[in-house]
Amino acid sequence: MSTLPVIVAVDGPAGSGKSSVSKAVARRLGYGFLDTGAAYRALAWLALEREIDTDDPDAVTSLLDEFDYSIGTDPDGYAVVVAGNDVTDAIREPRVASVVSAIARVPEVRSHLVALFRTVAADVDSPGIVVEGRDITTVVAPDAPVRILLTADEAVRMARRSAELSDHAAETVGAHLAARDRADARVVDFLNAADGVTTLDSTHLNFDETVDAVIAVIEETP
Ligand SMILES: Nc1ncnc2c1ncn2[C@@H]1O[C@H](COP(=O)(O)OP(=O)(O)OP(=O)(O)O)[C@@H](O)[C@H]1O
Ligand SMILES: Nc1ccn([C@@H]2O[C@H](COP(=O)(O)O)[C@@H](O)[C@H]2O)c(=O)n1
């Protein structure tokens, strides 16, 4: 008899540390890790490759038929592949970030990807998986035993993100981050914790303290 993996669901705004913290937590626990934003980014990448109008929901939806997507769940290295192309780095480019919210607001895209995330999470070859995104605690895995909203003040998130992108002006990085959150928050509420979701504010925590705090929430869960 096989047991389903334990799901740790993590949501939060851009730059809150969802990806880096979730990855570190997964490593510590020997769990898998699923970055759901990568799938929205990969579809946005494909839309740009095909030169389709990313503001046209029908054109975006039609891309789903040819969206041959895969992502690894190993926190120590996961490749994002679209139709045989390794797009792991390409999906992080600003040109992709600037159109991804338009892709993510199309309902057909969301339902297609939610189904995909549930399959990937159920099939993981580890005792558990940390799944991070915007709607994991509410839509993808609302019954997960551990559900966390990871947040931090906007100024702190902007500073952390611009430290990463030292060759870009801090104001530009901050403005892009805030604009993406505004657009995304019209589709999914990832700024307020749903019932039963634990809010973890990392504004005054360093990285390791944040990882410890997430692990403490997991360990305290009955
Ligand atoms: N508590 C923390 N203290 C200091 N730095 C942190 C902390 N948490 C995350 N970081 C750093 O903040 C940056 C943004 O984190 P990360 O990319 O994981 O955010 P994210 O929520 O996944 O963002 P996005 O949604 O835009 O992909 C990274 O450089 C990460 O190392
Ligand atoms: N569960 C999710 C995850 C992501 N999105 C959209 O994808 C964009 C990129 O996500 P990152 O986590 O890599 O920043 C994000 O801005 C959302 O538009 C989503 O809708 N739902």
Keywords:
Rossmann fold; 15% strand; 9 helices; 8 strands; binds adenosine-5'-triphosphate; alpha/beta; ATP-binding; 222 residues; five-stranded parallel sheet; 47% helix; binds ligand L45E5XJ5
Describe the structure.
With 222 residues, this protein is an alpha/beta fold. It has one domain: P-loop containing nucleotide triphosphate hydrolases (Rossmann fold, 3-Layer(aba) Sandwich), CATH 3.40.50. It is 47% helix and 15% strand. It is built from nine helices and eight strands. A five-stranded parallel sheet has the order 2-6-1-7-8, sandwiched between helices. Strand 4 and strand 5 (85-86) form a beta hairpin. Helix 4 packs parallel to helix 8. The chain is globular and about 50 Å long. The model has no long low-confidence stretch (mean pLDDT 95). It binds adenosine-5'-triphosphate and the ligand Nc1ccn([C@@H]2O[C@H](COP(=O)(O)O)[C@@H](O)[C@H]2O)c(=O)n1.
The major β-sheet equals:
5 strands, parallel
Percent range for β-strand residues: 15-25%
Which cofactors or ions or other ligands sit in this model?
A: adenosine-5'-triphosphate, ligand L45E5XJ5
Number of H- or I-type helical stretches? 9
Report the uncertain regions: none
Strand order of the largest sheet: 2-6-1-7-8
Helix-strand string: EHEHHEEEHHEHEHHEH
Mean pLDDT: 95
Would you report the number of β strands? 8
Q: What CATH architecture do you see?
A: 3-Layer(aba) Sandwich
| Count of folded domains | 1
Helix content range? 40-55%
Q: Return Rg in Å.
A: 17 Å
Instruction: Provide the CATH top-level class.
Output: Alpha Beta
The SS-based structural class is alpha/beta
CATH topology, anyone?
Rossmann fold
The first-to-last residue Cα distance is 23 Å
CATH-level-4 superfamily name: P-loop containing nucleotide triphosphate hydrolases
Domain Cytidylate kinase: 8-219
GO molecular function, one term: ATP binding
Family: Belongs to the cytidylate kinase family. Type 1 subfamily.
Subcellular location: Cytoplasm
